[in-house]
Amino acid sequence: MANCAIVGINWGDEGKGRMVDYLARKYDVVVRYQGGNNAGHTVINEYGKFALNLLPSGIFQRKTINLLGAGTVIDPKHLLGEIERLREKGVVITPENLKISNRAMLVLPIHPMQDKWEEIRLGKDHYGSTLRGISPIYGDKYMKKAIQFGDLQYPQTLKTHLKRLIDWKNEVIVPGYNGQKIDLEEVLAWLEEYANPLMDYICDASEVLEQAQKENKQILFEAQLGALRDIDYGIYPFTSSSSPLAAYAPVGSGLPNLKVDTVVGVTKAYSTCVGEGPFVGELSGAEADALREAGAEYGAATGRPRRVAWMDLVATRYGVMLQGATELALTKLDVLSYLDAIPVCVAYEGNGRRTERFPYTPELEQMRPVYETLPGWKCDISGVRKYEDLPEAARRYVEFIEQRVGCPIRYVSVGAERLSLIIR
């Protein structure tokens, strides 16, 4: 059995969804192992164009089991809406091909409210949260107060547990923000409306994965966000609240003894970032607008304009190291076709020194990019499917990145559609 993780190398939004959608046909199980509906994976295939926030990107393969793992946090109202939108386009979704770990956490209405209150309190120092309640639900998880999906199967225990959670919120959290008191019966009614319809999808993820392992089936792990948003090793505190690293995939999936055999790290041919935090080399003005428009760089979950920069090899090397990437997928190479020359950040300068190592977060604010410039190719490459058919300058760009980050680039995307991909 060969298991594979598809992970982000940078700040997220690298194009992981299109890679999972492409590779899922080769796998028996696709697992989202962390995060919630605070990021979107854009997929374009025969069913249409979709921004998946919670559903694993293998959901379009009818024979593939798609699992929301123990490390995920799930807003059931959002998930129901996402399921309905895909069904309207002809995608078959049943408890046979979609499963939810009984250990996944339930995002309740209080969590997005709490998220919003905290961003307002922080003012100009806010983190740029998506306001989907992700930080508060992970906070509750690690304070051992959150509700798991499996609790829905035990109504009396659920009510007792939920009352303890709400009493705590009303005594400690709500007064601190001068918020409206939470009503237990209203939350129970909300769960009845939005969580109970998902009861048939709840499973023991470890049992599902253990059986797959026994049957020598192949598992594809799908990460959300990227290495630089990792709670432990990212640009803390401007991170997510979970670990999108490949090393966490078995834990977050539901069976910690699983092995990850291949790690496909996904990185764009330039840099983008949604949310706050240091972003070395960030472009502004007309230069930024041109790149953003060429790449349609707006958040799949929020619609927010993404911050843009040229390819950052310092950050990318760091991401490759954190992820233990065995190969890379370089996405959106076609976006750069409008440029006469393409800058690439090869090092940082700041605090009187030059470095090619990614610094600790507070140092990043003082860092400035050191560029090398490569020639552009100035032609449409979106129809190319063989590497040797790319213009020489495009191949030189790919190989320059490959050599500098020390990891082979196996996939090069030249369009958003599933098959707009060059396999090296």
Automatic annotation (TrEMBL):
<feature type="binding site">
    <location>
        <position position="144"/>
    </location>
    <ligand>
        <name>IMP</name>
    </ligand>
</feature>
<dbReference type="Pfam" id="PF00709">
    <property type="entry name" value="Adenylsucc_synt"/>
</dbReference>
<comment type="subunit">
    <text>Homodimer.</text>
</comment>
<feature type="binding site">
    <location>
        <begin position="300"/>
        <end position="306"/>
    </location>
    <ligand>
        <name>substrate</name>
    </ligand>
</feature>
<keyword id="KW-0342">GTP-binding</keyword>
<keyword id="KW-0436">Ligase</keyword>
<dbReference type="InterPro" id="IPR027417">
    <property type="entry name" value="P-loop_NTPase"/>
</dbReference>
<comment type="function">
    <text>Plays an important role in the de novo pathway of purine nucleotide biosynthesis. Catalyzes the first committed step in the biosynthesis of AMP from IMP.</text>
</comment>
<dbReference type="GO" id="GO:0044208">
    <property type="term" value="P:'de novo' AMP biosynthetic process"/>
</dbReference>
<feature type="binding site">
    <location>
        <begin position="12"/>
        <end position="18"/>
    </location>
    <ligand>
        <name>GTP</name>
    </ligand>
</feature>
<dbReference type="GO" id="GO:0046040">
    <property type="term" value="P:IMP metabolic process"/>
</dbReference>
<feature type="active site" description="Proton donor">
    <location>
        <position position="41"/>
    </location>
</feature>
<dbReference type="GO" id="GO:0005737">
    <property type="term" value="C:cytoplasm"/>
</dbReference>
<comment type="pathway">
    <text>Purine metabolism; AMP biosynthesis via de novo pathway; AMP from IMP: step 1/2.</text>
</comment>
<keyword id="KW-0547">Nucleotide-binding</keyword>
<feature type="binding site">
    <location>
        <begin position="413"/>
        <end position="415"/>
    </location>
    <ligand>
        <name>GTP</name>
    </ligand>
</feature>
<feature type="binding site">
    <location>
        <position position="306"/>
    </location>
    <ligand>
        <name>GTP</name>
    </ligand>
</feature>
<feature type="binding site">
    <location>
        <begin position="332"/>
        <end position="334"/>
    </location>
    <ligand>
        <name>GTP</name>
    </ligand>
</feature>
<feature type="binding site" description="in other chain">
    <location>
        <position position="304"/>
    </location>
    <ligand>
        <name>IMP</name>
    </ligand>
</feature>
<dbReference type="InterPro" id="IPR001114">
    <property type="entry name" value="Adenylosuccinate_synthetase"/>
</dbReference>
<feature type="binding site">
    <location>
        <begin position="40"/>
        <end position="42"/>
    </location>
    <ligand>
        <name>GTP</name>
    </ligand>
</feature>
<feature type="binding site">
    <location>
        <position position="40"/>
    </location>
    <ligand>
        <name>Mg(2+)</name>
    </ligand>
</feature>
<comment type="similarity">
    <text>Belongs to the adenylosuccinate synthetase family.</text>
</comment>
<dbReference type="GO" id="GO:0000287">
    <property type="term" value="F:magnesium ion binding"/>
</dbReference>
<feature type="active site" description="Proton acceptor">
    <location>
        <position position="13"/>
    </location>
</feature>
<keyword id="KW-0963">Cytoplasm</keyword>
<dbReference type="GO" id="GO:0005525">
    <property type="term" value="F:GTP binding"/>
</dbReference>
<dbReference type="InterPro" id="IPR042111">
    <property type="entry name" value="Adenylosuccinate_synth_dom3"/>
</dbReference>
<keyword id="KW-0460">Magnesium</keyword>
<protein>
    <recommendedName>
        <fullName>Adenylosuccinate synthetase</fullName>
        <ecNumber>6.3.4.4</ecNumber>
    </recommendedName>
</protein>
<feature type="binding site" description="in other chain">
    <location>
        <begin position="13"/>
        <end position="16"/>
    </location>
    <ligand>
        <name>IMP</name>
    </ligand>
</feature>
<feature type="binding site">
    <location>
        <position position="13"/>
    </location>
    <ligand>
        <name>Mg(2+)</name>
    </ligand>
</feature>
<feature type="binding site" description="in other chain">
    <location>
        <position position="130"/>
    </location>
    <ligand>
        <name>IMP</name>
    </ligand>
</feature>
<dbReference type="InterPro" id="IPR042109">
    <property type="entry name" value="Adenylosuccinate_synth_dom1"/>
</dbReference>
<feature type="binding site" description="in other chain">
    <location>
        <begin position="38"/>
        <end position="41"/>
    </location>
    <ligand>
        <name>IMP</name>
    </ligand>
</feature>
<keyword id="KW-0658">Purine biosynthesis</keyword>
<dbReference type="InterPro" id="IPR042110">
    <property type="entry name" value="Adenylosuccinate_synth_dom2"/>
</dbReference>
<dbReference type="GO" id="GO:0004019">
    <property type="term" value="F:adenylosuccinate synthase activity"/>
</dbReference>
<keyword id="KW-0479">Metal-binding</keyword>
